[in-house]
Amino acid sequence: MIFKLVGDGRPYPEHGLSNRDWAQIPPRQVRLDSLITTKAVLDLHSLLAKDSTFYGDLFPHVVQWQGEFYLEDGLHRALRAALHQRSVLHARVLELTDPG
Predict the structure, then answer these.
(1) Domain boundaries, the chain
(2) What distance, in Å, lies between the first and last C-alpha atoms of the chain?
(3) Among 58, 59, 82, residue whose Cα is nearest residue 6
């Protein structure tokens, strides 16, 4: 199995981070098998495009919420890492705390 779970949607509260805010979070290693996706569908054109990160962040965005790691952005990069038989990838991880 590549991911811990294939999800469809974001179960965590809205964080309001912009791309500039995400860029301030230093990347760290995350195991692919610990990630829960927030998208159940992928676009093969994006997966196979050589320049798919040209206009975006080089690192996937992961939200840590209630002990789980949710892959918010970077599904195609994570799948490419798995296709290259890597078990980890570098991602920016936002740790959200439960407001309650």
Answers:
(1) 1-8+37-74+83-94+96-100
(2) 33
(3) 82
pLDDT given at position 70: 98
Q: What would the pLDDT profile of 44-72 be if each residue is shown by its tens digit?
A: 776 666 655 555 678 999 999 999 999 99
CA 41 to chain CA mean position, Å = 14
Planar angle of CA 67, 34, 16, nearest 5 degrees: 55
The torsion angle over the Cα atoms of residues 65, 82, 86 and 9, rounded to 10 degrees, is -10
| Two structure tokens written together for 20 | 């500039």
pTM assigned to the model: 0.86
Q: Under DSSP, is residue 22 helix (H, G, I), strand (E, B) or coil? A: helix
pLDDT of residue 42: 73
Separation CA 100–CA 54 (nearest Å): 39
Q: Output phi, psi for 29, to 5 deg.
A: -75, 140
